[in-house]
Design goal:
alpha/beta, Spore Coat Polysaccharide Biosynthesis Protein SpsA, Chain A, Jelly Rolls, 3 domains, eleven-stranded mixed sheet, six-stranded antiparallel sheet, globular, disordered C terminus
């Protein structure tokens, strides 16, 4: 009897949800729907409640290598400690990602590919759909889940249903690209079209079989990259250069849309309708659509105040947003940026990100608050030759043993106990105690306690960039962001 293996596809940058979603901390790692869980965490727990006869294995998560510690931490917070984390050396879209997952899963496992950045407000409906698709996928079919359309949406692709079967699934007559409004209205009236969700269920060996026939170059690149993969802590790293030769394509285009006309492959295509309160949260208007709204149609998060304002989204991260006399707008506030947009133009937020990148503005890709495997830091002030950071180190965690060429640091403990290594000396600091790290001194900060350690760090020097770090030892396997050689140790 095959087992169900959840495959969480955790790539993507979510640029249309800027300024909350950024390249270094994209939307799948954010809590957006008010339940305190990130989208990744909700996805990882989404199959709880599926019929007990469908035995599940530990999930396979495929993500950007730069997000590995964040992904691992969020899974561990949900009690998932046995996931296989596959790190893509480069983003190649979903077809190569699913192929990597199929190569690390059990050969007969049934893979359920789920993007980590989708919302489902009625997960019990997903359970019913999975149970309907299970016998089909177990017998060799590739099943996609079509969202029951409730409006003439022009932002999604569509699937035309074919004949029904005894499982509650349908054959697939055709796939359709994002339509015009007139065509979308025709699709909705016909009752024969479903939105293409990007959710798929297929046996691992059947997926690889289809790839061999339809995308042999892609399959070969993935196989070669996995054959020379390496293990790094809990992470699986495909060979970067070999994977770099892999063509990029989606599951839909690479395989799924070709199956209805390639019956000789022996991988029949089926679609199961799904009505689970689904959204891919592609832009801010989609978030407004899934959040609770007041009598005036306003949705909000954080500290907000709406007066004579209608059909708007107010999303505050750290300060009060007060809106007066607005209609159909989006206002999003973070510590370092504010977005104001017409709700009908939220797809164009990606243009803001492109403009910021063209200006080499770091806020295009990073927040002021930056997450690290040991905790996080927030750059709370800066000026010529100085920078002030609030640093929080998780219990039992430590920073790398490092030094800086261009800056000195002064540490003041605000909360908890710090273990400080400074040259040959190691000592403890308690609350309200401090130490000075001169320029060029090897040092390390660690938290030996059971509670988070919080310090204020004041940096001073001629250059304060994050690439002025030379690491000598690091518990997280990171190299230095510089390319110099110090004390005979080459940095990477």
């Amino acid at each position: 009897m095959p087992k169900l293996t959840p495959v969480i596809l955790c790539g993507g940058s979510g640029t249309r949800l800027w300024p909350l979603s950024r390249e270094h901390h994209p939307k799948q790692f954010l809590s957006l729907v008010g339940d305190g869980q990130s989208m990744l965490q909700n996805t990882a727990m989404r199959l709880q409640g599926v019929h007990s006869e469908i035995v599940q294995t530990s999930p396979v998560l495929v993500c950007n290598a730069d997000h590995r510690f964040l992904a691992a931490q969020q899974l561990q917070e949900q009690g998932i400690t046995d996931a296989k984390l596959v790190l893509e050396p480069a983003g190649k879209n979903t077809a190569p990602a699913l192929t990597l997952a199929a190569l690390v899963a059990e050969p007969g496992a049934v893979l359920l590919a789920m993007p980590a950045d989708h919302v489902m407000t009625r997960p019990e409906q997903l359970h019913r759909a999975v149970e309907a698709a299970w016998p089909l996928a177990s017998e060799g079919a590739m099943v996609t889940f079509g969202i029951v359309a409730n409006r003439p949406e022009t932002g999604y692709g569509y699937i035309q249903k074919g004949a029904a079967d005894s499982y509650g699934a349908f054959g697939i007559e055709s796939f359709a690209e994002k339509p015009t409004l007139e065509l979308a209205e025709q699709y909705l009236r016909s009752g024969q079209y479903l939105w293409n969700s990007g959710l798929f269920m297929v046996r691992a060996d059947q997926w690889l079989k289809a790839m061999a026939a339809l995308q042999p170059t892609m399959l070969q690149a993935c196989e070669q990259a996995m054959a020379q993969s390496s293990r790094d802590m809990d992470f699986i790293r495909p060979h970067a250069e070999l994977f770099g030769a892999c063509p990029a394509d989606s599951i839909d285009y690479a395989v799924m849309e070709k199956l209805p006309v390639r019956s000789e492959l022996g991988v029949p295509a089926r679609v199961v309708p799904l009505d689970a309160g689904w959204s891919d949260l592609g832009a801010w208007d989609a978030l407004w659509d899934v959040l609770p709204r007041d009598a005036q149609g306003n949705a909000g998060s954080g500290e907000t105040l709406a007066i004579d304002t209608n059909n708007s989204l107010l999303f505050s991260e750290s300060r009060l947003i007060a809106a007066v006399g607005l209609d159909n707008v989006v206002v999003v506030e973070t510590a370092d940026a504010v977005l104001v947009a017409d709700k009908s133009r939220t797809q164009d937020v990606k243009k803001v990100v492109a403009a910021l990148k063209a200006q080499n503005r770091t806020m295009a890709s990073a927040h002021r608050k930056v997450h690290r495997p040991w905790g996080w830091y927030d750059s709370i002030d800066s000026g010529s030759r100085f920078q002030v950071k609030r640093i929080v180190v998780n219990p039992g965690a430590q920073l790398s043993l490092q030094m800086h060429h261009h800056r000195a640091e002064h540490w003041i403990v605000v909360k908890g106990t710090a273990q400080v290594t400074k040259g040959e000396e190691t000592f403890l600091l308690g609350e309200n105690e401090s130490t000075f790290i001169p320029l060029g001194h090897i040092h390390r900060l660690a938290n030996p306690g059971m509670l988070p350690l919080e310090i204020i760090e004041v940096q001073s020097g001629s250059y304060l960039g994050e690439d002025d770090i030379v690491r000598f030892e690091d518990p997280y396997g990171r190299g230095s962001p510089t390319s110099s050689s110090v004390l005979g140790k080459k940095t990477i």
